[in-house]
Amino acid sequence: MNSHLAGKKVLITGASSGIGMYLAIHIAREGGTPILAARSVNRLKIITQQVQDRFDVPCYWYEADLSNDAAWKDVVDRICFEHGPLDALINNAGMAVFDYVSEAKWQDIDRMLGVNVKSLIRTTHQLLPHFLNRKQGHIVNIASQAGKIATPKSAVYSASKHAVIGFTNALRMEVEKDGVYVTSVNLGPVRTNFFKEADPSGGYEQAVDKMMLDPNNVAYTVVKHLFTERREINLPAWMDSGSKVYQLAPTLMEKALKRQFSKK
To answer: Does the keyword Oxidoreductase apply (predicted)?
Structure first.
């Protein structure tokens, strides 16, 4: 197979559904080797079997709770021991609970920061020496347009994604001289199970239904840009334009879009 992904080993977190599942499929389609990590063992087994049967490439899965730092570190160590140096890391795992800060539960806040920020930095920190030693590799961090435009009831989630974007931008500058690519993927709402936990009422998902991104298309776009020097992937394009206007005139945007911002 003449593909830039042929034989490449790619670790995908949050790989049991949604974007993570489609990332595995598109990587395998291009001859790559997906290495999947998530909590749902049953889902991981099904995806792994389907990928192997359909594309005739190796695919591996690991049960992992990324909110448990010590346990996740051990899983990453095991992955490195069993597979040797990896070629790419896609930090896809993420979660949210939409609430006003005054009404939020601390355990929800702690878990959001643990999964969205700490585990992402943990995985990157653990694998980065392998990439630097080989003078190659690609780190892709799935962030969010919420990291650029904050809205009510998403203060902690927005803060976590703002942290991801900041971390990604700084890391990119640190390692570009060493041949390692770093990309931030900033997404609007995606049609996945994400909102079942973020907003169990279903109100927000219904409100943004017409603008939701297809996870299959998102994954295809990310995989297409693997091992290329891409600073950011912003989807949808119109939302990226809105975030740029927001940076120039935040007060005006907040007043003009107050109703839309408060749909959660």
So the answer is: yes
pLDDT band at residue 249, thresholds of 50, 70 and 90? confident
Looking at the 3D structure of the chain, how many domains does it have? 1
Annotated active-site residue 157? The verdict is yes
Which residue type is seen at 48? T
The active-site residue, picked from 60, 62, 157, 246, is 157
**Which amino acid is residue 72, in one-letter code?**
W
166: domain CATH number is: 3.40.50.720
The identity of residue 167, as a single letter, is F
Phi/psi of residue 104, nearest 5 degrees = -75, 150
Model-wide pTM > 0.85: yes
Alpha helices per DSSP H over the chain:
18-29, 41-55, 69-83, 106-113, 119-134, 155-175, 194-198, 203-207, 215-224, 237-248, 250-256, 258-261
- Tokens read off for 4: 């830039």
Supply 209's token pair.
């239904």
